[in-house]
Write a structure and sequence with these properties.
alpha/beta, Rossmann fold, N-(1-d-carboxylethyl)-l-norvaline Dehydrogenase, domain 2, 11 strands, 43% helix, binds pantoate
């Protein structure tokens, strides 16, 4: 049965509860997509008290709706998290472990965790923190923009790739509910190659746009080709050392396709640097460097891009 047919016959009151950590643009987009398909969904908040928050969403057709989202505060974590069957983690890569630490011991053993962030790396640490729960990983190229704290606008369609990583599998009911709620979402038996392919796009576009202070489209210029090719080549070599075989030509074609498709956009790392926010460089080029050193290899271009972005972060006036 297809995911769409399945959603039509699901009884909303019998649906398991999904919780989201991270009310950024992607967290709020996923919240909207799940709640629209009648999944019971709430946010986990760092505040003490639980509260309802009005959240506004503008869809691709520019239609605006507002609904009340439940934010579960710390005082209610123990009581509420026992009902959570899937926890979707939408915080930045460098926040994943800290965000999950106080929650994991309160989750049911049969709760499942799904990490959905740019970059790679936190899954290795989270795998060691699990308390019987299963772990899935995903990546989305849906575009979303936070217009204000509680107003998110969807800015582009895109694929969402999800799949199992370790521990018990996600239940079929929840998997089908996810796939039917998130447009263009797909489940992969082997998710790691998908994450490495997405990482190839990020190792090239993100640091280069931040360093050269440009939109994604400007990276099509010949002057950037050498660095982009070198960064992606190193990634493919490191992935191969991890037994993930990727075709370099396909990777580079995809990078240039994304450069063209998102030509007018500023990458997330460009925006982070412009707003003097910590970037996700450690989970992007930093992950390639880390995996290279694990295999006794060097990844010189990724190392240089990592160093350049780290140096940019050091120039922030407020380094908090
Ligand atoms: O991080 C980003 O900005 C995006 O993943 C991408 C694909 C590079 C487009 O800007």
């Amino acid at each position: 049965m297809s995911a769409n047919n399945y959603s039509a016959i699901i009884d909303k009151h019998k649906l398991p509860q999904v919780s989201i950590i991270g009310a950024g643009a992607i967290g709020q987009l996923i919240y909207q997509q799940l709640s629209r398909s009648n999944t019971q969904v709430n946010f986990i908040s760092r505040a003490d008290q639980s509260q309802q928050q009005a959240v506004t969403f503008t869809n691709l057709a520019q239609q605006q709706t507002t609904c009340a989202a439940m934010f579960i505060g710390r005082n209610d974590w123990s009581q509420q998290l026992v009902d959570t069957k899937l926890l979707i983690v939408c915080v930045k890569a460098y926040q994943v472990v800290t965000a999950l630490k106080p929650l994991i011991k309160r989750l049911r053993h049969d709760c499942h965790i799904l990490l959905l962030h740019n970059g790679m790396g936190p899954h290795l640490e989270v795998a060691n923190m699990l308390n019987g729960q299963g772990l899935s990983l995903g990546t989305t190229s849906q575009g979303a923009l936070k217009k204000s704290a509680w107003h998110t606008q969807q800015t582009g369609q895109g694929v969402t790739q999800l799949g199992h990583f370790t521990g018990p599998m996600l239940s079929e009911t929840i998997k089908m509910s996810l796939l039917s709620s998130i447009p263009q979402s797909q489940w992969f038996e082997d998710i790691l190659p998908m994450l490495w392919q997405k990482l190839a796009i990020n190792v090239a576009i993100n640091p280069m746009t931040a360093i050269h202070d440009c939109r994604n489209g400007e990276l099509a210029a010949a002057q950037y080709r050498k660095t982009i090719t070198a960064a992606v080549t190193e990634l493919a070599q490191v992935a191969a050392a991890e037994s993930i075989m990727l075709d370099l030509t396909v990777l580079l074609d995809r990078v240039y396709q994304v450069i063209e498709l998102t030509a007018a956009n500023y990458s997330s790392m460009h925006q982070d640097v412009q707003h003097q926010r910590k970037t996700e460089i450690e989970a992007i080029n930093g992950f390639v460097v880390l995996m290279a050193s694990k295999h006794g290899k060097s990844a010189r271009t990724n190392q240089q891009l990592l160093a350049s972005i780290t140096a940019l972060e050091q120039t922030y006036s407020n380094k908090a």
